[in-house]
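To whoever is covering the structure queue this week,

Two jobs came back overnight. Logging them here so there's a record in the thread.

Job A:
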Amino acid sequence: MSSDLPAFRYHPDPLASGSIRESAETCVCCSRTMGWIYTATFYTAQEVSGRFCPWCIADGSAAERFAGEFMDSYGLDGVSEEILREVTRRTPGFHAWQDPHWLVHCHDAAAFIGEVGYSELAARPEALDQLRQDLRMDGWHDAAQLEQFLTHLGEGATAMLFRCTVCGTHLAYADAS
């Protein structure tokens, strides 16, 4: 990530994830053209006719001015109010087919790494095992079907990969169209 961009603890590389891209667009919050623009979700009841620069996300001014959030609080159970505000109001969200959500580990929000397929997930066996267990709990009882689904991640379904900011454990959830 460019040293010119603000650092986001819970989304360390928003350029790689596609949530921020180079752009000549003017930020709807600060009215400046900063060279970078946010491209993912923003939830608000207000009409917003433009996009935000990363600096207005990082300092919370975009969320405050437009009474919105970049991420829903779903999945953020057990974190402090401060962490909840940082993830929902001062961290870039990410693109997903279904409603995106954040994962938690060690009582802290995990860092979003990106959208991955099976081979990237298999390189992090703890994330693959956790995802397999979560899918079983969600009703995937046929082991062969579950493994077929997992080995075809990246082909119509993907995994959203996270890393615990406390212990470094990788986590994931499946996302499909």
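Job B:
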Amino acid sequence: MIKVLLAEDQGMMRGALALLLDLEADMQVVAQVAAGDRIVPAALEARPDIALLDIELPGRSGLDAAADLRDALPSCKVLIVTTFGRPGYLRRAMEAGASGFLVKDGPVEDLAAAIRRVLAGERVIDPGLAAAALSAGPNPLTQRERDVLTAAVDGATVSDIAGKLHLSQATVRNYLSAAIGKTGTRNRMEAVRAARQNGWL
């Protein structure tokens, strides 16, 4: 029996996925969580064979949780299942140790087949997204530039960002300027939008 952990913040979607996977003769959903910071504790308790993780979760992103899970429970495979098929997300998922990446608009039979393939040692990646990721190239932003853009998401001032990240205002301006240049945008909000669309944040 394949033991599955589901991490999905939308209750209806999580419940539907659990019902559909439980209909598979060789699968059992042993844990369901709605927040990214619940993934590792739930996995350590339920000991799943595979974790299906959404990316945009409250508490901690599925991409960050994938890396945490790899360290905490190396025997558990990770399959990212998301609405957001962005090349940068795929690249980050692979760097975090995920064994697969699927976009949610596919049929549930594909998901069940992907789970079996991942557990058989294969990598399973949405083909269209794989092609887009290859043409998009690597994330040009440094970790600090990503931190500053993430802090700027809600329209925070330079002063707010500096206080939050324990940086000087001049340093924040430098990081913002570099990020705007690398994303080919005109201001910080456009840079945030471009970075999000590419899956770099």
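Note for Job B: The two ends are 36 Å apart (CA to CA).

Please reply-all if you pick these up so we don't duplicate work.
Q.
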